[in-house]
Amino acid sequence: MSTRELHLNAFLMNTGHHEASWRLPESDPYAHVELGHYVRLAKIAERGTFDSLFLADSPQLWGNLAQRPAGALEPLTLLTALATATEHIGLIATASTSYNSPYNLARRFASLDIVSGGRAGWNIVTTAGAEAARNFGLAAEPAHAERYARAAEFLDVSLKLWDSWEDDAIVGDKAAGVWGDDRKLHPPRHEGTYFSVEGALNVPRTPQGYPLLVQAGSSEDGRAFAARYAEAVFTAQQTLADAQAFYADLKSRTRAAGRDPEHVKVLPGIVPVLGSTEAEARAAEQLLEDHIVYEHGVGRLESLLQLPAGTLRLDGRLPADLPPESAVEGAKSRYTLVVELARRERLTVRQLIGRLGGGRGHLTFAGTPEQVADQIETWFTRGAADGFNIMPAVLPSGLEAFVEHVVPVLRGRGLLRTEYGPRRTLRERYGLPRPANQYLTPAPALV
Amino acid sequence: MSTRELHLNAFLMNTGHHEASWRLPESDPYAHVELGHYVRLAKIAERGTFDSLFLADSPQLWGNLAQRPAGALEPLTLLTALATATEHIGLIATASTSYNSPYNLARRFASLDIVSGGRAGWNIVTTAGAEAARNFGLAAEPAHAERYARAAEFLDVSLKLWDSWEDDAIVGDKAAGVWGDDRKLHPPRHEGTYFSVEGALNVPRTPQGYPLLVQAGSSEDGRAFAARYAEAVFTAQQTLADAQAFYADLKSRTRAAGRDPEHVKVLPGIVPVLGSTEAEARAAEQLLEDHIVYEHGVGRLESLLQLPAGTLRLDGRLPADLPPESAVEGAKSRYTLVVELARRERLTVRQLIGRLGGGRGHLTFAGTPEQVADQIETWFTRGAADGFNIMPAVLPSGLEAFVEHVVPVLRGRGLLRTEYGPRRTLRERYGLPRPANQYLTPAPALV
Ligand SMILES: Cc1cc2nc3c(=O)[nH]c(=O)nc-3n(C[C@H](O)[C@H](O)[C@H](O)COP(=O)(O)O)c2cc1C
Ligand SMILES: Cc1cc2nc3c(=O)[nH]c(=O)nc-3n(C[C@H](O)[C@H](O)[C@H](O)COP(=O)(O)O)c2cc1C
Fold first, then answer.
1. Which residues does the annotation say bind FMN (chains A, B) (predicted)?
2. Is B426 a pocket residue for ligand 2 (Cβ < 6 Å)?
């Protein structure tokens, strides 16, 4: 096994990442709110010695009900239930810094970290879109830069809260009647632009100190944020060259921020569609595309590109005069990725919807297990990835196929662990040190 | 078995409700954040066919570390983990209407209700005290009346969110490519004094429709709120007469609010301290009192009574000129209960602290299993209670003793079920109907 470890994360999403997956005969249209479905997926991922499970989130009902499965179990709730059904795998929940309070969210992540024995991770997002804003008393989406400014303060407060108990604050001296040492408590007394938080957290410091910090924004502000805080970064990249550029940029920003670039793991998304031959894989991909309702995709694309409804035609192309990314207040990097994909490959709107239907901008790769393993190895060894966010088009079958057929190939090549081994926490699996408490000063020298 | 069912709820709190419980040899001072401790308690309660488990909460670190176990696992997180470790028992989590957003909290309770197969309950509290307020950007505690006004709007919005999907909104028509029926979606479009919430919940309607609604405030505003919304009410009562008066008042208010008084269950708290003889029980009580650090209790009492630090002396009595309940902005009903207890029994401050140390105002009852069962039966049959909130002084041993020794007596008298039977949801156990969806109009007659 090479010293550099490949990290695999299972991105779980109802019946799969392909928008038409629910229409296949094998799929259960109610699976997205069935605990049993997710327990089954978690166990498959543990068989494949994945580092972690990941759930996306936004506090809003996406799109409409007609198109595809909508709604979900709230991610921290679902991952807490999965913590008791699994033993090793990390549990990464998405939660928004724009629509939560630091005190509430910090204690929920601390609680999950304790309940899971140190397996919690937080995918920190700022939540694009006006729909979410309107569920929290705002008339419109806060500007992109403001969302990231709030996110940075949210993190600073959360880190203070997680450090507000020293690791050895509990004394438990029954004879003296002294349970804990109040000198080892550090209330944040934070007064900032977005938050004032006075008191210490009501959860002791956790196995990991705090959850693994994950980030998934690729805009300028998103990368700056990642360089400062993130220990793992999810990203959508369509070509090896783009992925290499992103990887190099993020590592150098991390170094510039005074951190070890090895302490941030870059994990592009990949939607593997497997077949025992290349032709079989392509047929599986085609079957999914045949089930897309293209008319639905037009509205979603217009909304992502901030175009008035009715602008796009299925057999036309994107307008030539789309605004630059700087004019976008929503999901900046996804906007650019989609526009560049359409232009680079001269796709019609219909073809573009077909491509996005599989992974919403993530790289779909149809092939044999060896071909998928080759792709993974190439990106991993050529400076494009530290691992992958595996996004099966259909669930559970796509995850099962990956674990049965691709994982053994990766193990055979010495790229992937064959068992979990003695490391217990998610941060240990990523090869990262347990963070020190920011309030701990070195002990004074004895005189 | 009589047609009227006795309802038992296990109020779990780290090593027990007695503040000195952690100092006993049997207690683990770290138990309050150990999942295994709570799993064990949950299984004991299921052996005793309790209706539910209950966890209290406030988003703040109570008191100081020296005195007794502080901090806890966040209740919804812990109960989600317990949902997978249990099969029948209800799961009632406390959450604050003052320091949450309806959209976030509604989806968390909906998710727990789904994950647990319809066993979720919400103890709705408004959270007294400035400490909590200062963790959420407020300089001071909002006034009592304002907290309850916000609570009422919070409930109205939550009920709209839980009803925002009709039960049969999911269609799952694979052939037609139609997953759900958008006409069965009802976005709240709520614009009120405290909240604006536009969109539908991103969780389908749940097994119970929504969590069982529980309430625990006994002030004038608290009772009015309970009469309007609550399906179960926790209360602290020191005497049969007080408990009967509260019971009658709450039932008549519920009737006046246009609801069936049988649809609100009144559950006073009781701290049973068991012994195989009366003398043994009193000795167990004395052992606990001997472990109280009385100096700590003075500060807590001053804070509850809103007195300046240093006012009270251990061997003195409460001042004669305490302000009336109407002048209190914190926990109104608890204030009155404590003042009346001290006056009625002419207690010194030390004696009062001894009494409160066991159950913070709840009735402590030391006796044999038969005596405890008598007490329960008396209150149950004489119009003081529909059941009890069992608050063992020491955990797990106190719950174990109750289930081993009191439960069989109650069953023998035909007061308590001997097995769970076919009812699945918490609301079914309470004998309550599943709530109808507020947006559902009767189907038009066929023509
Ligand atoms: C794999 C992956 C998962 C993501 N998951 C979420 C999510 O769950 N919720 C969310 O609001 N944004 C999610 N995002 C989007 C980003 O967090 C971000 O909002 C988006 O890329 C726009 O950020 P940017 O403007 O910095 O590029 C995800 C992105 C990636 C690559
Ligand atoms: C059994 C019981 C449990 C309670 N649990 C909580 C709790 O967890 N959190 C909280 O803030 N208040 C809790 N309370 C207090 C009440 O919700 C309420 O805040 C207090 O009685 C003051 O309300 P009032 O002013 O309406 O009397 C509890 C009360 C009782 C009787």
1. 57, 94, 144, 148, 218-219
2. no
CA angle B79, A123, B95 (to 5 degrees): 30
Determine the atom of ligand 1 nearest the C-alpha atom of A223.
Answer: 26
Closest listed residue to residue A123, CA positions, set A58, A212, A38, A195:
A212
Helix (H, G, I), strand (E, B) or coil at B235: strand
**pLDDT tens-digit map of A391-401:** 999 999 999 99
**Across the interface, do A104 and B99 touch by the CB < 8 Å criterion?**
yes
- Of 3.40.50.300, 3.40.190.150, 3.20.20.30, 2.70.98.10, the CATH number of B7-275+362-429 is 3.20.20.30
Task: Report d(CA B160, CA B317) in Å as an integer.
Answer: 50
Closest CA–CA distance from residue B352 to any residue of chain A (Å): 20
How many CA atoms lie less than 13 Å away from A390 in the CB half-sphere?
34
Per-residue confidence band for A113, with pLDDT thresholds at 50, 70 and 90:
very high
Q: pLDDT band at residue B445, thresholds of 50, 70 and 90?
A: low
Q: Which residue has its alpha carbon closest to ligand 2 atom 16? A: B217
Q: Tell me if B144 is assigned to a ligand binding site.
A: yes
Return the domain boundaries, chain A: 7-275+362-429
Nearest atom in ligand 2 to the alpha carbon of residue B333 is 27
Which pLDDT tens digit goes with each residue over A150-178? 999 999 999 999 999 999 999 999 999 99
Q: Is A160 helix (H, G, I), strand (E, B) or coil?
A: helix
B168, exposed or middle or buried, with CB in 10 Å at 0-12, 13-18, 19+? exposed
User: Is residue B2 scored above 70 in pLDDT?
Assistant: no
Q: Which atom of ligand 2 is nearest to the CA of B235?
A: 31
Question: Which residues 267-296 of A are in CB contact (within 8 Å) with B?
Answer: 291, 293
* Residue type, position B115, single letter: V
Amino acid B334: pLDDT: 84
Q: Is the separation of the CB atoms in A65 and A134 below 8 Å? A: no
Cis peptide before B433 (omega within 30 of 0): no
> Which ligand lies nearest the alpha carbon of A144?
1
Nearest-Cα distance to chain B for A131, in Å, is: 7
Q: Work out the burial of residue B157: count CB atoms within 10 Å of its CB; fewer than 13 is exposed, 13-18 middle, 19 or more buried.
A: buried
- Residue A405 is given by DSSP the state I
Contact A200, A165 (CB under 8 A): yes
- Residue at token pair 């002791």: A204
Residue pLDDT, tens place only, B287-338: 999 999 898 889 888 988 989 999 999 999 999 889 888 888 777 788 888 9
Q: Can you list the positions of beta strands (E) in B57-211? A: 90-96, 120-125, 170-173, 178-180, 190-191, 196-197
Mutate to test the interface with A, among B38, B55, B80 (most CBs of A within 10 A): B80
Does B43 contact chain A (CB < 8 Å)?
no
Distance of CA A333 to the CA centre of its chain: 15
ipTM computed for the complex: 0.94
CB-CB neighbors (< 8 A) of A165 in chain B = 71
CB contact under 8 A, B198 and A103: no
SS3 B215: strand
Report the gap between the CA of A386 and the closest CA in chain B (Å).
Answer: 32
**Centroid of ligand 1 to alpha carbon of A291 (angstroms):** 26
Q: Report which of A181, A182, A183, A185 is spatially closest to residue A171, judged by C-alpha positions.
A: A181
The closest of B243, B153, B217 to B190, measured between CA atoms, is B153
Protein residue with least CA distance to atom 30, ligand 2 = B216
Tokens encoding A212: 């693994």
Residue B409 corresponds to which tokens in the numbers above? 């007596």
